[in-house]
Amino acid sequence: MVEERKKFYYSISTMIGTMIGVGIFGIPYVLSKSGFAIGIFYFLLLGFMVVAVNLFYGEIILRTKEKHRLVGYANHYLGKWGKGIVTISQIFGFYGALLAYIIIAGQFLYMLLSPIFGGTDFLYSLIFFGLGSLAILIGLAVIAEAEFVMSIFLLLTFLIILFSALPVINVNNFFTYNFNEFFLPYGVILFSLGSLSAVPEAYEVLKGRGQSFKKIIKWGTIIPIIVTFLFAFAVVGVVGPNVTEEALGGLRNILGLKLFVFGIFFGILAVVTSFLVLGLNLKNIYRYDWKINKYLAWILACFVPLVIFLWGSRDFIKVISITGGILGGLDGIVVCLIYLRAKKMGGRVPEYSLKFFKFLAYFVAFIFAIGIIYEIYYSLIK
Q1: What percentage of the chain reaches a pLDDT higher than 90?
Q2: What confidence score (pLDDT) does residue 161 get?
Q3: Which of 187, 264, 290, 365 could tie 336 with a disulfide, CB 3.0–4.6 Å?
């Protein structure tokens, strides 16, 4: 019984640790621009959709005898075209996330080190990339495995910031809105809440005991959504319209230097570990799935986002918005399609089965499709 309870809580913590990431730093900025009430709308809508998609994915896993990840499930249920779409979506999703880490790492390091050493955020981004890409080449998997621990520390940091901010929150900051920026939070929030990769990892922790899987997915998704919302609530409530793109800059004068440095420090650690994990995974995709040699795989994994960065894509909010709104939405649609096929073709009886699954799947896929179209217009055309 004790062992079962340990697995239950560790599975939930695995999802929380994976879901809490650097995307959370962009949310207060977009909510300060669109208005907090609009942000609440998106948290309710996208929170519901993310929970639904994660539950779809969980049921797909339970209905399938073989072990896969999303690419494998797409190939199994949709065929080569599904595998191709997911492969392209995930690779470009990796690139978008790696680019975002390069950008925000430079901003964090600049805030922390420029008072001592000077320099620019561009220079610190290049330093971060140089050290991070070297670690990926060497293969520092031990450091990469620390992502979960760093995510827990980051979660604690957010909670400390929240409780420190409560006494100085100005409620008037929550009653602004700008319908011209109504769509701005969509991709950023979806990027932050995206957690598909955590679902199979949580199931692995259970070691095949799927009776509690539905509850784990629900709480492992809902808790990070609440934490993310409360973090945005605290930052917007304290800083109001002066929120910076990476959220922490505007808190320095209000919460004090020590808490500011504390938040920046763990933010940097979270970026480092996430960069290593994604970079190593992408390198291994090229190396083992595409049979590319070690050094070319490293170049393809690391230097594509660097080239995009040097080309001029240095807008953190825009990068995570496009990555979340387009690529995250595409993954969500594919999960819905896989789910509908798995309901008919699955090879085992699942431990849970959702009701009204067709309505849910079509509704979620429709919203994602609308989001992709509007994100392309809003971020790339407008």
Answers
A1: 48
A2: 78
A3: 365
- Measured distance between the N- and C-terminal CA atoms of the chain, rounded to whole angstroms: 57
Grade residue 20 by pLDDT with cuts at 50, 70 and 90.
confident
Question: Per the structure, how many domains does the chain have?
Answer: 1
Among the residues of 178-323, which ranges form H helices?
185-193, 198-206, 213-239, 252-255, 257-284, 294-311, 316-322
Q: How far apart are CA 106 and CA 270, in angstroms?
A: 13
Q: What are the backbone dihedrals phi and psi of residue 177, each rounded to the nearest 5 degrees, phi first?
A: -155, 155
Domain that holds residue 311: 2-381
The SS3 call for residue 177 is: strand
Distance CA 1, CA 6 (A): 9
Model-level pTM?
Answer: 0.91
Distance set, CA 286 to CA 214, 291, 309, 378 (Å): 33, 6, 21, 32
Q: What is the CATH number of the domain that holds 352?
A: 1.20.1740.10
The torsion angles phi and psi of 180, rounded to 5 degrees, stand at: -70, -20
